[in-house]
Every structure is written in structure tokens, then in C-alpha cells.
């Protein structure tokens, strides 16, 4: 049997994306990620609804950013750009530097000093980016990168670059193509607010193309200490264990609010404690290892479910935005400690409860 070769999100969804010459496509075969049906968590939370995880941690650099980066870097290359720049809480920098390496161009990344997980930092370094740790937060870094990109020949690849959102919307297409229908609810973490905007665009485009006849409600979640949209004001010093979404002034704020309102959805917040509980549940009960920012989706679903938000038959898709291996420190902190055992069979059997 001859299998059709997978060519990444641009080739798969070309008719819905900005035009690009085949020779300019920069891809690491991102997308095509699994939609995993929850079994064990679904059972204990609510048997009347269906829960699916869109596991974006299985993208080439371990996060959803690759869907947008293939589009943004391809466009940068096609316009002759020789360098990209971004501000990042870690994942954007990992993705930008990988795609820049693939394209043979330079990458510059600005990250908040000491506030990104080691996995993400190692990626940007390994891919050869010039990594600048600033004594400020993500929002400060984004201001600087935007100014530089305005005045110098270096392409900004944060989600304010419209091609990023174009690529990211392909996740909605994949979900519909797989389920055969849109979910009733789509739950996402909200940081810089690009992804919830992109997903909503994707759903609307499939609706306009008559591939679906209804739209899901978009449910976004921010961490309590970094919840500008929920509070309706800028948070000057955002804090949360979910460093990926430690953002106090999201660039796509208004677009996320529109996605919320147009879809009759909501944007709410949850505590760090609940984020970490959900993070442990996903890994230990479902075998799905994601980073804390991703687990906020499950924490949010649990919060809403407790107040009777869902109806029988509802289908919820939760985007798990990044892989757990990006941030192993948190996993070690919240899990059972490894046991030190003398080097003999009897001691091992004792710990196993079989002696
Ligand atoms: N989840 C993860 C794992 C992320 O890395 C991010 C954003 C989000 C969720 C939020 O998505 O910004 O589109 O609302 N990370 C950016 C970065 C800010 O620099 O890697 P958003």
C-alpha cells in the first residue's frame, strides 16, 4: 500500500492559508497531533460529557508554536529576511530558533531572566539562537522586540505577526476533521492570547466554508496571579507556577475578548494549586505529560463542572499546549519522591510490597 506523505500544516491546509511558494516552505512536519479521548479522568469528573485532549506537546519542538512558526518563518524567508526575533516565556523561542535553524537564518530571543523552564532554554541554545535574558518580564521583552523589528531588518515572529495565528488555526481544522464535527466547548490556556484567537478564526473559517454548521464556545483560562483579561486591567508583576503564561498585558487581548464574546464563551482564572493538581492528574491518571500551563485547561474544566456548567452530551476539547518534558522540575516537585533502596532483591521486593 502506498501511503500519502504528510507534509506539515501548510501543505495540508493550503487552501485556508496565505499563499506561499512550495520552495519557500520551512517545515519540520508540525501538526497532525493526536486527539486523545480521556478515559480515567472523564469517568471521575462527569460521565455525561466527553473530554478530549489535543496533545500539542507532540509537535517537533514540543509545543503548539510550531504550527504558527512554520507559516511565519516561511513567509519571512520568502520575503528575503535573514533573521527572526521574538520575546518569549520559552516555547516561542524554542520554536523560532528551530525553524530559523532549518531555514538557515539567524534567531534572536529575549526571555525573562530565571523565569523560563530549563528544557525550553536548552532548546533555544541548542538551535543556535542568540539568547538574551532580560531583567524584566515577558511584556517588557515584547515591547523591546517590537521596537527593534520596526526599525531593523529582522522579522518579528511573536503572535503579533499575523502569519503565526494563520498557522495556529490549523489545530481547529484537525479537530473537526477528526471528530467530524466541532466540539461544544473548546478550552485553552490564555497567555499572550494569540492561540485562543487563532482557534476561533479556524472554527469560523470552517463554518464559512460550510464544513460545520455550528461553532463551539471558547473557554479560556488564566492563572490567578496573571489574569489581566479576567481582572480587566494590566497586571504589572504577573506571577504563576505556569511560567509559559506569566503575562500581564497580552498582545491579542481584544481579539481574545472577541473570541469569548462572539462564541458566547468565557475567560476565567484558576489558582496555581489547582493547576498543579490537574497537571498531576493528567500525567498519573491518563498517561499524558504536559506542562503546567497546559494543565490549566483541565483545572478550568473541573472548576466549571463543579458549578454544573456542562450539559449531558457536551464534547469538550482541551488543548494541551506543551510537553511535560519541557519543565521536569515541576513534575519532580509535585510527585512522589523516588525511593533509595539497598542493592538487593529482598529490599526491592519489600518496597514493592511483595516481600
Ligand atoms: N501554553 C503554553 C505552553 C505556552 O507556551 C503559551 C504561550 C500559552 C499556553 C499561551 O498561549 O500566548 O497564545 O495565549 N507561550 C508564549 C511563549 C508566550 O513565549 O512561548 P497564548
Give a topology summary:
Blueprint: H1 9-12, E1 35-37, H2 40-45, E2 50-55, H3 65-78, E3 83-87, H4 91-103, E4 106-112, H5 118-126, E5 130-134, H6 138-151, E6 155-156, H7 162-168, H8 170-179, E7 185-189, H9 194-208, E8 217-223, H10 228-231, H11 253-262, E9 266-270, H12 272-286, H13 292-306, E10 315-320, H14 328-334, H15 345-352
Parallel strand pairs: 2-10, 3-4, 3-6, 4-5, 7-8, 7-10, 8-9
Antiparallel strand pairs: 1-2
The structure holds ligand F0G.
Question: Quick summary of this structure?
Answer:
The chain is of the alpha/beta class.
Task: Provide an overview of this structure.
With 355 residues, the chain is α/β, with parallel strands linked by helices. It is 43% helix and 14% strand. It contains 15 helices and ten strands. The strands form two sheets. The protein has a six-stranded mixed sheet, with helices on both faces. Strand 3, helix 4 and strand 4 form a beta-alpha-beta unit. The longest helix is centred in the middle third of the chain and has 15 residues. It is globular and about 65 Å long. It starts with 8 loop residues before the first helix and ends with a helix. The site of ligand F0G has 21 residues, from helix 4, helix 9 and helix 13.
Helices and strands: which structural class? Answer: alpha/beta
Provide the list of bound ligands, each named once. ligand F0G
The backbone outline, from C-alpha atoms, is: globular
Share of helix, binned: 40-55%
Q: Characterize the biggest β-sheet.
A: 6 strands, mixed
Arithmetic mean of pLDDT: 97
* N-C termini distance: 52 Å
Q: Helix-strand pattern, N to C?
A: HEHEHEHEHEHEHHEHEHHEHHEHH
Q: Which residues form runs of ≥5 with pLDDT under 50?
A: none
Please give the radius of gyration in angstroms: 20 Å
Order of adjacent strands in the largest pleated sheet: 1-2-10-7-8-9
Number of helices: 15
